[in-house]
């Protein structure tokens, strides 16, 4: 039986012909809106050495807000999952005891933020009484992708295994619990270095927990102890978590850590209110630190911008240091020359991440910012298989 053309069919076709172009226009404008981020009010790029900074941050780059609604962001870590062909940012919300994931989607939908880990730095009854109980610094183990985190509330450094369980890597020194591990970095031989200021303690440097040590240390957990803990050998977890090696005890407020691209130098941010600065050490073949010296004095930045302290930092493949600083983020050459600033409009920046997508991401108080860059992060060490 042959179907006949009817007038109502023509009306339906005409209606579809009008509807589809309108829907396509709507989706086009929706896509543009979803993938645009507001510029940070009062932000700018200050070019102290333009001929060098222009090769690092392009002219016309703006500081954007990509996520907000957090308590206090920290511990930015870029993840490039080559097997799943996905890239995303992990960061701590120290005030809300969580780790978040931010992922920018392709096509119509922007994936945005999602919860990665709840109770990231504190799991006991004491958590509710702490202002900053969550995880702080985050680090990825190369190739395996396990996350190592500094836990404020539980005052330890742990590695989260791929099955979701946590292995303690550092919990005590000289029989006393650590202050509140803050940031960490992985050496060429696979040792983890971390800082331990009293920022996470209820009364900070006046807290009884700090009095047990009397300093904010820089510590090392050797690769051998990390591997033993992962293998689950008898007593290995206790051994790895009991006594990290003390590398430096001259500061109350040691903060961010980063290695140079060849791992011959270790940079340390000191967020002292009186003498904020970045220092640099030579790293000897056995991992010992030697020849501490001033890398850059932060007092001129503090006087100029007020808000902020030397905090988390990352190093690019050319050896330039991107350091959370008074005013925003300082860009410093390998030789210690201050090349310029990413000024964030009076917003405190606590940490940064150099991402494969061509952006510098910033943990900026209750938000996450980013700015376009022309460089990449230094390669991870070829260790810790």
Automatic annotation (TrEMBL):
The protein's name: Gluconolactonase (Precursor)
Superkingdom assignment: Eukaryota
A GO molecular-function annotation: hydrolase activity
InterPro entries for the chain: 6-blade_b-propeller_TolB-like, SGL, SMP-30/CGR1_Lactonase
Keyword terms: Hydrolase, Membrane, Transmembrane, Transmembrane helix
One Pfam family recorded for the sequence: SGL
Domain spans labelled SMP-30/Gluconolactonase/LRE-like region: 73-364
Gene3D superfamilies the UniProt entry points to: TolB, C-terminal domain
């Amino acid at each position: 039986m042959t179907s006949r053309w009817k007038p109502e069919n023509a009306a339906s076709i005409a209606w579809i012909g009008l509807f589809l172009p309108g829907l396509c226009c709507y989706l086009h404008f929706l896509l543009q809106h979803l993938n645009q981020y507001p510029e940070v009010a009062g932000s700018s790029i200050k070019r102290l050495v333009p001929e060098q900074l222009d090769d690092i941050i392009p002219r016309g780059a703006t500081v954007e807000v990509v996520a907000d609604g957090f308590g206090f962001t920290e511990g930015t870590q870029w993840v490039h999952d080559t097997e799943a062909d996905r890239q995303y940012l992990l960061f701590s919300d120290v005030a809300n005891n969580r780790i978040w994931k931010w992922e920018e989607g392709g096509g119509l939908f922007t994936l945005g933020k999602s919860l990665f880990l709840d109770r990231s730095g504190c799991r006991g009854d004491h958590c509710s009484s702490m202002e900053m109980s969550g995880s702080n610094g985050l680090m990825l183990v190369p190739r395996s992708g396990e996350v190592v985190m500094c836990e404020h509330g539980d005052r330890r450094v742990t590695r989260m295994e791929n099955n979701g369980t946590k292995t303690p890597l550092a919990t005590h020194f000289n029989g006393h619990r650590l202050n509140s591990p803050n940031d960490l970095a992985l050496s060429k031989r696979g040792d983890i270095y971390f800082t331990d200021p009293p920022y996470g303690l209820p009364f900070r440097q006046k807290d009884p927990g700090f009095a047990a040590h009397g300093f904010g240390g820089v510590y090392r957990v050797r690769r051998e102890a990390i591997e033993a803990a992962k293998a689950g050998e008898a007593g290995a977890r206790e051994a790895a978590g009991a006594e990290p090696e003390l590398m430096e005890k001259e500061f109350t407020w040691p903060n961010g850590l980063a290695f140079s691209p060849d791992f011959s130098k270790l940079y340390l941010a000191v967020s002292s209110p009186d003498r904020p600065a970045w220092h640099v050490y030579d790293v000897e073949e056995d991992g010992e630190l030697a020849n501490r010296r001033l890398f850059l004095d932060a007092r001129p930045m503090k006087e100029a911008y007020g808000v902020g302290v030397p905090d988390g930092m990352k190093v690019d493949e050319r050896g330039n240091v991107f350091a959370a600083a008074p005013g925003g983020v300082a860009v410093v050459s390998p030789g210690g020359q201050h090349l310029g600033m990413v000024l964030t409009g009076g917003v405190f920046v606590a940490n940064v991440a150099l991402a494969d997508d061509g952006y510098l991401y910033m943990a900026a108080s209750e938000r996450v910012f980013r700015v376009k860059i022309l460089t990449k992060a230094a390669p991870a060490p070829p260790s810790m298989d």
